[in-house]
UniProtKB/TrEMBL annotation:
Protein name as annotated: VWFC domain-containing protein
Keywords for this protein: Signal
Lineage of source species: Eukaryota, Metazoa, Ecdysozoa, Arthropoda, Hexapoda
Species per Swiss-Prot/TrEMBL record: Anopheles farauti
Endpoints of the signal sequence: 1-21
Amino acid sequence: MRSTIIIIAIIAIIGAMRSSAKCPQPTKHYTTLGCEPSDELSVEGCPRWFNCSTLAHRFRDKCYLYGKAYELHEHVPDGKVKSSCLALCTCQMNARRGVAEFHCAHIDCPEFLTPHRTGCVRQYRTNDCCASRQACGDKRSSLARCTVGGVSYYEGERMHFPDDPCLTCICTQHFNESDHPFSHTKCYTNECAFELIAPSVLTNGAAPVYYGDRCCPWEWRLQEFIFKKKVKWI
Ligand SMILES: *[C@@H]1O[C@H](CO)[C@@H](O)[C@H](O)[C@H]1NC(C)=O
Ligand SMILES: *[C@@H]1O[C@H](CO)[C@@H](O)[C@H](O)[C@H]1NC(C)=O
């Protein structure tokens, strides 16, 4: 397990550069796993290290999500996974791999399948997977507007922040870009659901790969020598 931690550290450092006023290195996989950032910061504003010692004390018959342990057959509250478009997650033993993993249902939103309607804007609530409705025509025209990083949004739309890909805010009439995001009730931190979707990557010592400005690792890579032997059960 120690090698996993070291590999994660190395890849995070060579990971894709991101335009960010804050720490420019992608560190979301550490915080997702419940690693503790050091108080000491580098000149770039990144934690000098993450303490991932809890990873070394994990049990094969428990599931782990965002730093919390779940017993076999335990349910994850839907509120914790809904924003990742997952539901009904339970911890179950994967007999083939001999390790506990989450099993979840995927939420399919109507908007994944239907084309965008011109003159309409989808309306979202905080931490939801799917749009709750659409506002069209005059209803759209009467919505408040927000501006973030030069991009204009309608009230109810999800807004993305160039300097923080892990932040989402829903546009409201009270939104003001110059306020601290967390003074807005409709701002939230995006979660990365890799522990739910691909739990085996961690036990196998895979390293996260980030692309561009994304909040979450885009994929996980196994070291080549492991990859050749064990690729079948990724
Ligand atoms: C890491 O955290 C553990 C407790 O979670 C603590 O016992 C240990 O001293 C910490 N290590 C470092 C280097 O801070
Ligand atoms: C946003 O807040 C700043 C400073 O608090 C203020 O100067 C500005 O007028 C506000 N903008 C809007 C659109 O309310």
